[in-house]
Amino acid sequence: MAEATAQNQQFALQRIYIKDLSFESPNAPKIFSQEWKPKMNLDLNNKTTKVSDNTYEVVLAITISVTNGEAAEQAFIVEVQQAGLFHAEGFDEASLQQLLGSYCPNILFPYAREAVSDVVGKGSFPQLLMAPVNFDALFAEAQKRQQAQGTAPVA
Predict the structure, then answer these.
(1) What pLDDT is stored for residue 153 in this prediction?
(2) How far is it, in rounded angstroms, from Cα 26 to Cα 7?
(3) C-beta separation of 122 from 51 below 8 A
(4) For the chain, give me the number of helices (H) and strands (E)?
(5) Starting at the edge strand that comes first in sequence, how are the strands of the sheet with 10-24 ordered?
(6) Tens digit of pLDDT for each residue in 34-65?
(7) CB–CB of 83/61 below 8 Å?
(8) Strand 38-52 relative to strand 73-89: parallel, antiparallel, unpaired?
(9) Rounded to an integer, what distance in angstroms lies between the CA atom of residue 46 and that of residue 142?
(10) How far is Cα 140 from Cα 155, in angstroms, rounded to an integer?
(11) DSSP 3-state assignment of 58?
(12) Which of 32, 52, 115, 139 is the most exposed place for a label (fewest CB within 10 A)?
């Protein structure tokens, strides 16, 4: 039975795109004359929207805020919403949740990482390469939180 179900499963990446991209450097050019001692804050989130039957938009949202020095002056803020359209058919609800909540963000992350690196470099700051993210662990943690709160997972 499981083999028959697996044979009916279809998954396809249809499109990858930047949904939103923002870069701010509120203290430029003054910030460039200071010694570079950055402190980074990273916020990572993903959201899934059903677009049509078996087609889902997954958006990986990353916000990075970097301050500099003891005074913690804002060096820059970069926000990117890297999105993808995915076709997923024949999956049970739990497998679909895992696919959309973990596998798809894993596909999107390298594109978001590149967008962040490019825009930070174009802002005249040292290259920022984000470390890999374990989306499987983040998904499992979110599932545990939802179960503890007694809420259903969001697809």
Answers:
(1) 56
(2) 53
(3) no
(4) 4, 4
(5) 10-24, 73-89, 55-68, 38-52
(6) 999 999 999 999 999 999 999 999 999 999 99
(7) no
(8) unpaired
(9) 11
(10) 14
(11) strand
(12) 52
Ranges assigned E (strand) in the chain: 10-24, 38-52, 55-68, 73-89
Cα–Cα separations (whole angstroms), residue 93 to 46, 152, 153: 18, 11, 10
CA dihedral 116, 119, 122, 128 (to 10 degrees): -10
pLDDT over 80 (residue 117) = yes
Residues above pLDDT 90, as percent of the chain: 80
Determine contact, residues 80/108, Cβ cutoff 8 Å: no
| Cα dihedral sign, 115-78-131-58 | negative
- Does residue 105 sit in helix, strand or coil? helix
Q: Which residue has the tokens 């997972």?
A: 153
11 phi/psi in degrees, rounded to 5 = -140, 130
SS3 for 153? coil
pTM of the model: 0.86
All structural domains of the chain, each given as residue ranges with its CATH number in brackets, are: 2-149 (3.10.420.10)
Contacts of 118 (CB under 8 A, 6+ apart): none
